[in-house]
Automatic annotation (TrEMBL):
Natural source organism: Desulfobacter hydrogenophilus
Record-annotated DUF1722 domain positions: 208-328
Pfam families per the UniProt record, alphabetical: 2-thiour_desulf, DUF1722
PANTHER family: INNER MEMBRANE PROTEIN
Protein name: DUF1722 domain-containing protein
């Protein structure tokens, strides 16, 4: 699964283009490999048959890679929820040292991969992100733990988007995660190719509507930061400016879009056509906005018409807005919300 993804021309695509695949990490079992404690897998076909068209996976199985066999006795988190041990379920053999000795080397190897995201196996004592069971020494079971490797990964790569495979079944969570990995890829491309104030201004301009659909307060903070770009570069250097912007960008994208936020963006877009659209065309657009607001149609419906008018009336500023095409149309991420 390497190379480039072929993207076909659609109503919302600008042209037929090749998109370089994005590199993300994934729990090995999700990719269909039989590495589970029972010798089985947790194959997620959305990851291998759909998302894989646009991403290359770096598989990681903490339990096998740290030295545990296949099959093996299952493990669980035991003890203090803040600092649990990793023990086998029946024989209570402590595997904590085995795991913690392996993790630093793995993180160092992943550092070189420049991952734009990671998808973890849910409910796993090594890889689960949320609500992992911790069996307390007091006999109580608390669903407040994080898998050993997942916790270390998030601490070491705090700006890399992460999600659990099970949660990706939620259309909104799925779109939010995938939008983040594509946004991070675009950001890193800028850092690699045009790490200067001019490049930052262009990036901020092109992503205005996308950021606004997540957080107006963050967009305003980012705008002030860019406006002070020359001053910050003079005092702290370009690296400091880009670091501060990246932190705000990822914080903004962490906040989910809502129908209300999207309506505000759509109305902003409509303002660009006030001299182009006839009264009937404007009313048709407003009717679609209202249908979207009430939940009768997904976001892709008004956006399809908007993209049509962007091309018809040649709106150069809107053509460059990533909000209109933040991820491949083939993923159908805006067909449900």
């Amino acid at each position: 699964m390497t190379g480039k993804a072929q993207i076909t021309t659609t109503e919302t695509d600008k042209t037929s283009i090749d998109i370089p695949k994005i590199k993300i990490g994934a729990s090995t079992c999700l990719l269909g490999k039989k590495v589970g404690y029972d010798g089985n897998h947790s194959h997620d076909r959305y990851l291998t048959q759909t998302l894989s068209l646009f991403v290359d996976y770096v598989p990681v199985c903490p339990e096998v890679e740290c030295g545990m066999p296949i099959p093996r006795e299952s493990v669980r988190l035991v003890g203090d929820p803040a600092a649990p041990r990793l023990e086998t379920r029946n024989t209570h053999e402590d595997k904590t040292r085995m795991m913690t000795d392996w993790i630093p080397g793995k993180l160092a190897a992943l550092e070189k991969e420049n991952l734009c995201g990671f998808i973890f196996k849910s409910k796993s004592p090594s890889s689960g992100l949320y609500r992992i069971r911790v069996y307390g020494d007091d006999g109580k079971v608390r669903k407040i733990g994080t898998g050993f490797f997942a916790k270390a990964f998030c601490e070491n790569f705090p700006r890399v988007p992460v999600e659990e495979a099970g949660r990706l079944n939620d259309p909104q969570l799925r779109e939010n995660f995938i939008e983040k990995i594509f946004s991070l890829r675009r950001w890193r491309k800028l850092v690699e190719e045009q790490k200067n104030l001019g490049g930052l201004v262009a990036f901020h301009t092109q992503n205005k509507l996308l950021i606004l659909s997540h957080s107006q307060p963050h967009y305003r903070q980012m705008g002030k930061l860019v406006a002070k770009g020359k001053e910050i570069i003079a005092k702290e250097g370009g690296q400091a400016l880009f670091e501060q912007y990246e932190i705000l960008l990822l914080k903004a994208l962490d906040l989910k879009t809502t129908i209300k936020k999207n309506i505000n963006v759509l109305m902003h877009i409509l303002g660009f056509f006030k001299k182009n659209l006839s009264a009937d065309e404007k009313q048709e657009m407003l009717s679609l906005f209202d249908q979207y607001r009430q939940g009768y149609v997904p976001l892709v419906v008004p956006l399809t018409l908007i993209n049509h008018y962007v091309r018809k009336y040649d709106q150069p500023w809107l053509k460059d807005q990533t909000y209109l095409n933040p991820h491949p149309f083939e993923l159908k991420l805006r067909n449900y919300f």
